[in-house]
Each structure stands twice: as C-alpha cells, then as structure tokens.
Design brief:
homodimer, alpha/beta, 8-stranded mixed beta sheet, 14 strands, disordered N terminus, arylformamidase activity (chains A, B)
C-alpha cells in the first residue's frame, strides 16, 4: 500500500522519466538541480533563528554584545580619514563593527572545542554540516505542566511510534516552546527551564546516530554540572542552542539547512538554521513567496538605534 | 534520447516507486527526507568558505579582527570572578571573544543595507536563502592571460551553450582561481584583479533572475566607483565575496547551502557556503566520508596562538 504521505519528490520525479526529460531542450547537465526544481523550490521555508542583538538573553557568566558603526581602519586620500565613521551620505556605504564578548550568543552551534581541548572547532566541521533530515520531538505539553521537564528516551520512542525510526545523520530538535520567552532577557534563563536528559542524548547519538540535537533554552539541562553538554562535548558531538520557531515545523519530513559563521578555531557558532518543509505544510514561505531578489525596501531609512543596531527609522535625516 | 548525465535523483527514485516503497516498514511520513536519502547524503560536499582569521586579506579601508579568550561578564559565587578568563582546566570550558571592526570580513554575503539606506539587512533575508542551484562560470583561463579580466555577458552565454539556461533563482559563482592568493594578505587586493562587468550583473539579474552572484576577490570590479556593487545594492540585490574552492565544483548540477551569522540589522554577512555536487563528482566528501558525529579529535590540545585563535598546539601544558 502506498502511504498518502509518499514523498512529493518521488511522485513528481516519476512523471519526469526519460521520455519527458528527453523532450526538453537544455539544461542537459542538471545533476542535483532536480532536487531544487522538484522538491525544495516549492517547499515551505521556516527560519529557526533568533537574530542576535545587543540586548538579549545570554548565560549569566557571559556579557552582551556591542554593535556600532565601522570607522576607517586607515587613511585613504581624498576619501576617508582613519577613525572616521562610514556613512551612506559621505562614503556611499556603511559597515558594522561588533564587540562580541562571547561566541555563545544567540542561536548557536556548539562545537566540541567549547568544552574539550581535543575537540573540533567550528572551522573544523566538515562540509556535510549543510542539509540534513530534521526531526522535531515535541515536549511542550509536558513543559506546560512542568517547566523543568527534561526530554526522556520515552519521548523519542513515542515519536518513533508515530513517524518511524529517526534517520541516521538527522538533526533532532526538541520543541518546548520556551523560545517564546526570548524577548524577556532577564528571565529567559531562570530555572526551572526545560531540558534534555543525558539518557535521551545518549540514545539519540549512540543508538540513532544523529548529527546533533538542538533545544530552545541556552543550556541543555538544569543539572549543576551540565551533565548533558559535558557528555556531548567530551564525546565529540555538537549541539544547537537558542533555537526558535519549532512550533512552525512538522515533527517529521522536513530538511534543515545548517549555516554558521566560520572563524578559524572558533569555540562557538553564530548560527542560522532554516527548516524546509513539504509544500503542503501550512507555515513558511516558498521561493515564489519570497524570491530574495530583489529584496523588499525598508519602510523608512536605516539608522542606528540606541544600541547600535541598524533599524528603519521614520523621520530620519 | 536519455542524457548520460540524467540526474541521479531521478534514476534512483525511479527504482523506488510504490511497490518497493510499500515494502518498507516505517518511516511512514518521510516527506522531503527522500531528498537526503536518495540525493544529498551520497553527494559530494565542498566547503567554499575561507575560515576568517585575525590576519587575512581585508579591504584597505577596514581593519583586522581581534580574537581573544572570553572573560567572565559577572561574578558567579564559588565559580568565577568578573573579568577572569574561562579555561578548560579551571572552569571546564572556554569561549572566544571577537572584536570585529567590520562585517565585510572573510567569505561574506553582502545585503543591500551595506550601500542603501532603504536596503534589506542581513536579518531581513528570507529563509529561502537556504538551498539553491549553483552555477559556476569559469573565467580563470582568461584571468591567466589578463589578471584584470572582468566577466562579460558572452562568458555567461558560452556557459549556457554548454549547459543550458541558467535556472531562475540560482546562485552564480564566478571562478577566477584568485582565491588561491588568500594566504598573501598584503597583496590579495592589489589591482588588477578579476572582476564582473556591470553588463554581466544586469544580465544575470534582469534576464536570468538569479538569487545572487559571488566572486573570489573582495570587490566586484576595479572601477573607481565600484559600479557593479553600487548597482546591485541600490537595486536590492545581494552578492557574495571572498568565495573559495570554486575549482573543485562542477560548472552545472550542484546545489549550494547558504549559511551566515544573523545579527539584527547587520550590514554584512559572515558567511559559509557549501557546494553539494553529484555523487560521481571527483572532489568533496559524502556523509559516509565525514559524518560529523562524532568529530575527529585534535592532534594536540587547543591553545590560543599569538593572534588569539585556538589551534592544536603540540607540547601544550
């Protein structure tokens, strides 16, 4: 029997077997482009990332970031003097300077080097950190009853009863809906907050061989020793923290695009994760909805706000 | 007639039509996971990103970045004093602090806000900046003869003669092999360097409706007004700069995974791009080659080098 949810890519490609392909003019060498044309172009894209900002939740032992205008690093005759701020009006462009007191900031991808002196750094991650199956395990109902609930192996098994075995190499995100408190920086890290049990992490990595797990809070669990993160990092696994919008993603059947800045030897990852869900999923945007070129104009000119971030500013001069 | 280069995804999915799918146990709801299982898991992944570093090529009007150890942002009783450096030995982890004098640094994705006060910022980019078809147009042979060669419309048309029409929404990278000079920071920006002509940019965006183009140098062209970048930014298009390893990617048939850090209102993008090429491509790694979990151990313990970057350090104490 054919599942009603048979992958769209299979159904569509079946209609494109040799006879219809040969009727087309070039492209002759489309290789993996059929994946885009037939599966991901019309898929629903959901950004799982908090934009990081000068004021936001951060672990108490770290500090906030500073955003400010870039100034000239050197004299360029007839153009700019060292130390002068670049402006749209005078120079035709702006740039931004950051003082980032920690790489554990915002939606992040922790490499093992964060905790282990023999661990891989962010620039050591292989290029296969790119596109993976995305599994979303919901614990938000249990968190409503107990904000300190930690995901158990049974939650994983319950997911598998509904959707089948977790694919090897998948990214497994734990949905707690905790991300909705992001705009309350002072209390985002208050305990209790939802976590992931060490047993569940071991099960996901050792039995299901996932790529990494992710969660919405900024710590993996509320144990005094952070036992889950310690086990992951010292066993050379990565993890994602501060993930957003998991309530807008299917539990099964989406892909995840894994992006991050790549500083040499980085011990943390300023990350951007995007879920790519089947075309019939109700949330998210397709390429037709948001092509990205050209991009929409701002409603008002950009100016730096009191924290140094460029924001549309009605009435700006 | 069937092309010998018929997409692998079609050939493979054809063997997985209903009868064989129904013979499987769960997963029942695999949605887009078939894209991974059948097309990208076994594909060749190539990182197109320079890891950014404290000393590297940068536009002369900007400055270098500073990397250093993160220190405590606050007292935590019995654990850390404000200002104390986090260490593996005492605290069980490290973190890194960055002073980034510009967001135009390393392999980057420029949003229109870099030049246009009504332009989209990096945090405005829609989630459809994720996975796209990758086109690589080679000009490296012309650059060998003339280092100041700028890609012309004819180079695009020649590519189309070989591979068919550029897909709408694609990312078009211009291969010049200039990236091989990255380790010579003092002279990377010396003129002449290879560029992209304004006519070619207009053709790619207005006639072919690409998502963005990218190039290996840190500027789009060598005109005094940077006419190409000016046109792109003021017409609300993005562009990639400082791209690497395009000599290891096919001219047609690969996908690109688009990643970047997402600061609120950012006027530049610290990016990471990964090409995903068909399985029979000679360069790159598959998930089987580099699963990413667990990651390899360092050959020696990580310590900060003289520029503040964590590097494996034989004999470290």
């Amino acid at each position: 029997m054919v599942s009603k949810r048979l992958p769209a890519v299979i159904l569509i490609t079946a209609s494109l077997l040799p006879s219809s392909v040969s009727a087309q003019q070039p492209p002759q060498n489309q290789g993996l482009w059929s994946v885009y044309e037939q599966a991901t172009k019309g898929a629903k894209h959901i950004d799982l990332t908090h934009a990081f900002a000068p004021v936001q939740p951060v672990w108490p032992g770290f500090g906030q970031a500073e955003f400010k205008a870039t100034t000239a690093g050197a004299d360029i005759p007839d153009y700019v003097k060292r130390g002068e701020e670049y402006t749209y009006a005078k120079h035709g462009f702006v740039a931004t300077s950051y003082v980032l007191t920690t790489d554990q900031y915002g939606t992040q991808l922790d490499p093992p080097a964060h905790w282990d002196e023999y661990g891989a750094t962010i620039s050591d991650l292989p290029p296969t950190f790119a596109v993976r199956p995305l599994v979303v395990i919901p614990i938000q109902e249990k968190v409503k009853a107990d904000p300190g609930y930690h995901m158990q192996v049974q939650d994983v098994l319950d997911w598998e009863t509904r959707h089948g075995r977790i694919p090897e190499g998948a990214v497994v995100m734990v949905r707690s809906d905790w991300y909705k408190r992001w705009n309350n920086p002072k209390h985002f890290n208050d305990k209790p907050f939802p976590g992931v049990s060490l047993d569940a992490l071991k099960f996901l990595h050792l039995e299901r061989k996932i790529l990494f797990h992710g969660h919405e809070p900024l710590d993996t669990d509320t144990t005094p020793t952070l036992e889950g993160e310690a086990w992951l990092m010292h066993n050379h696994f990565t993890q994602a923290e501060g993930v957003a919008n998991l309530d807008q993603v299917p539990e099964a059947g989406a892909l995840i695009s894994i992006g991050f800045a790549k500083p040499l030897g980085g011990t943390g990852g300023y990350a951007r994760f995007v879920a790519i869900a089947p075309a019939d999923w109700p949330y998210g945007v397709t390429v037709a909805d948001a092509s990205g070129a050209p991009l929409p104009k701002q409603s008002a000119p950009l100016r730096r706000d009191e924290h140094g971030a460029m924001r549309p500013t009605p009435g700006a001069k």
